[in-house]
Design a protein that fits this description.
The protein is an alpha/beta fold. It has helices spanning 50-57, 82-86, 104-114, 120-133, 149-161, 179-193, 205-208, 228-234, 236-245; strands at 10-21, 24-35, 39-43, 65-70, 73-74, 89-92, 167-171, 197-201, 213-218, 221-226. Bound molecules: adenosine-5'-diphosphate and magnesium ion (MG). The site of magnesium ion (MG) has 5 residues, from helix 1.
């Protein structure tokens, strides 16, 4: 639980992070630390800023102000070579960003081969093993348009995991899967990325519960963070989300 990470080295420290789009303030001063090896769940109402927060972490959105210390470097600083830092993050986007004109296997092997991280043969072997892990071996040569929403999510996950990154970020990446499929998939993934830091956005309280630390977002603020039991005891929004998904039973 979180106590066991208090003395773990910091991986990311966010300080007073703000983001606005025109006059719309979407992130209103987020300050939080994520430790090496920690699994963090991020939960909160739709529109509360979860995706924007994650996108700021690898500067797909430029923060309006604040700091994001990643391994001791402030990546919110515009002079930082962000591509170097993006290599350390495997990110599964909410809207997949899958290449529609490429087969499933080519979607997975493209980046590592282009970036010179692996030979094509090596990438294909790894991709095939990942496809087996996410249950998509039979879709290897299909175009993504032939996949269901849940299968596209699994493809996006396999594509992020082929990257050997110290941190993986999942933006609602399991939402199109039923709970049991999600659970099995996360167990299979965790065998591959055990010990790595993960930030997992989820709408499902049952998915968030097992995290080392749960961040609760509301209205562009990180209103609380802690374990499931800590948040149930003290965080109104967390209790509301929990109650709405468990039929009002707060036990
Ligand atoms: P969540 O992931 O929690 O649902 P988002 O981070 O996607 O929330 O969005 C938070 C708010 O920011 C929403 O009101 C959304 O409309 C707004 N927003 C997100 N991206 C943009 C953008 N590129 N331009 C303008 N507004 C945006
Ligand atoms: Mg989102």
């Amino acid at each position: 639980m979180i106590d066991s990470f208090e003395n773990a080295p910091e991986l990311i420290r966010v300080e007073d992070l703000h983001k606005s789009f025109g006059g719309l303030n979407v992130l209103n001063g987020i300050t939080e630390t994520i430790h090496k090896g920690e699994v963090v769940s991020l939960i909160g109402p739709s529109g509360s800023g979860k995706s924007t927060f994650l996108r700021c972490l690898n500067r797909l959105e430029e923060p309006t102000s604040g700091h994001i210390w990643f391994d001791g470097v402030d990546i919110a600083d515009k002079s930082v070579n962000i591509d170097k830092h993006r290599q350390k993050m495997g990110m599964v986007f909410q809207h997949f960003n899958i290449f529609p004109h490429m087969s499933v296997i080519d979607n997975i092997t493209l980046a590592p081969v282009l970036l010179g991280k692996m030979s094509k043969d090596e990438a294909v072997v790894k991709a095939e093993s990942l496809l087996a892990r996410v249950g998509l071996s039979d879709k290897r040569d299909n175009k993504p348009s032939r996949l269901s929403g849940g299968q596209k999510q699994r493809l996006a996950i396999a594509r992020a995991i082929i990257k050997d990154a110290p941190i993986y970020i999942f933006d609602d990446s399991f939402s199109a899967l039923d709970f049991l499929t999600e659970k099995n998939l996360r167990t299979a993934l965790n065998r591959r990325i055990a010990g790595r830091t993960q930030i997992v956005v989820t709408q499902r309280i049952t998915s968030a519960m097992g995290a080392d630390c749960i961040f609760v977002m509301d209205g562009g603020c990180l209103v609380d963070s802690g374990t499931h039991n800590e948040l149930l005891a003290r965080c109104r929004i967390y209790r509301e989300i929990y109650a709405s998904q468990t039929g009002g039973d707060l036990q």
